[in-house]
Amino acid sequence: MLYPLGHRATYTELSERIFDQSAGNAAVLRSEFVLTVTEPVRHPPPEGPAARAFPFGDVEITTLWYSGVEAEWQDFSHPVTGQSHRAVFFEPTALDGPISFPVRCATADGDVRFELPLLFVADVSQPGFVSLTDPALTQHLDNVYGQRSVPLPGIPLDLVRAAARSDGDVHEVHGITIGRSLHSTGYRPALSTLDVRLPALRTLLGRDDLREVRFTAEYLSRGAAQDVLLDMVPLDISFVGRADRSGGLVAPHFAANALSRTKGLVDRVALPASGAELIDPGRLFPSDATLLGFALKDLVTELKEPPKITSVPQPGQPPTVKMEWTGVKLKESGTFQPAGQSTLDLTVTASATGSDIRCSVRDFALMLPTPTKPLLKLQFASLTFTHHSGDHPKVQVGGVKVEFLGELQLVQQLGDAVDLSGLTPDITVTPAGLVAHYSLLLPSVTAGAFVMRDLAVNTEIAIPFDGRPVSVSFGFASRQNPFRLAVLMFGGGGYLELELDHTGLRRLEASLEFGATLAVDFVVASGEVHAFGGVRFELADGEVTVTGYLRIGGCVEVLGLISVSVELCITLAYQSATKALVGRATLVIEIDLTLWSDSVELDSGTWVLTGGGSGAQPFASHDSGTRMLAANGSGGRAILAARDAADGLARWREYQAAFVPVTTGDQQ
Fold first, then answer.
1. What is the C-alpha separation between 668 and 653, in angstroms, rounded?
2. How much is the pTM?
3. Structure-derived torsion over alpha carbons of residues 533, 538, 544, 546, reported in degrees to the nearest 10
4. DSSP 129-185
5. Among candidate residues 84, 188, 191, 72, the one with its CA nearest the CA of residue 136
6. Distance of CA 665 to the CA centre of its chain
7. Model pLDDT, residue 628
8. Residue among 428, 513, 450, 444 at smallest CA distance from 479
9. Which residue in 372, 437, 492, 618 could disulfide with 514, CB within 3.0 to 4.6 Å?
10. Mean pLDDT confidence for 213-223
11. Strand bridging mode 525-540 / 562-575
């Protein structure tokens, strides 16, 4: 029998006595050794482990007669019985080395042909020793024969041969290593390993290295009822930094150490345990696998299968590669807030005719920068990335609602006026990512006492391809082109620019300013009255500060000899760190009497109107020169700068006395 294929053969010595002229016409005996294959075709065994281990049909040795065979017979000492058996096997050789037998293996999609060296094993049957079925001899033959690898030209092989073929049954095989299995009738060939290339990785990630795989013990035992078909050395599958190939919005990253018939590349460690239905996302995904910049392991829930990556061979053309991950339920995680049935759907298809990528995330909101300190809530009915070969990538945003929170509630009316759902964005695609830019003109928006006109709204949704978080920026006009602002009878302008992602508020710049000036001239006297106000948002050291100011003043000049001016400035600021509303008031009076001039400044210091914690002092002054008095109760608070006012009045009377002497007690 020929090991390891199991074909029957005979080894014959043909001897002929001839007169050899070179030997003086002496009669000499000439011998020729011939090996003849007597069983050219072996049919596959019945369904079972032996049939699964060698996924071919008929196996044929196509050349049946070999002459000039040299045999170096090998003896065998049985390790169990201790018996020594002479001339048990040899490796057929010719003048140029071991003979390679041409082999044809039948498959449903055509024949597979290769050449393979074989061992000739004598059919020896003795008490306690049957050479063709003895396990000890078979193990010895394994050690002698070793691993014989056969290169193949990258042919698609159906490794399961099931009645209903699954996508993961056929693989692109570039080499096989042939071993044997032992049965009561002798040897049967078996595939120890296979060298395969994975078209899915070649198409999706540009990786085309050979992978050594082997049949799983479960498949060999149970057959097609076992889904995991092949084991392999762990393979890292990462779309981190290449999210444009995996739907733009999501960057899967997981290890695969097996090939499934229905799920493609899988991690056996992360698959559900026997009897379980769900996969633990924490065991499947590392922290750099992301969706919209958020860790996948923290978002997905009730996970039943990993991303399904398969390739389907197509006759005469490259295989069709698919990556599917649909109906994936999402849960709350930090900034990401589901709204209803939040799901992820990913489909990537690549074939000879082109590729299609579609990724959609539905019913979710982003609470930026954090749910505990939100400044902006962006709610999406859907966010969809699509890319068809030969076309530009597209992002479709459905049902977007913008809500400003916390310190940004003052501009909520602006958010109410922004409706992005009906707009078509301008898409800019670079190797680093994709930016969807929306432009919207708002003729008029009312926010409390503020009326804003000629608003140019610019919104950008940036989707990086390198795993960084999705960021959102809003621009209501700009510093260079502010909108027009009206507050009662006052006029002015303003702008608002901000950028956020789930790591925090990355940029904030906003300003609303208004004011008016009135000048009067009565020949002998002239003057002016002015009032200015504004609100400004600033981001500093990660904290948002909202400040407002009101400046009211005026001056009067008489005949160019006497002038008096008064300026009152009140500032209010909300400090997000202490959650306190603090204020400061300054009153400046200037008097110029030609030969003498002076000014008086009254400063309230910094005081807390409200907030700042239970232990905060509502009107704690930071100015030692001014003492503030506060009246508690529902009647309000009265602030009196008593000492500074008295000092100012005393100085005025001192100046008046120098020029207007007091002669009676009732004159002032």
1. 9
2. 0.68
3. 0
4. EETTT-HHHHHHHHHHH--EEEEEEEEEEESS--SS--GGGEEEEEEEEEEEEEETT
5. 84
6. 89
7. 33
8. 513
9. 492
10. 94
11. unpaired
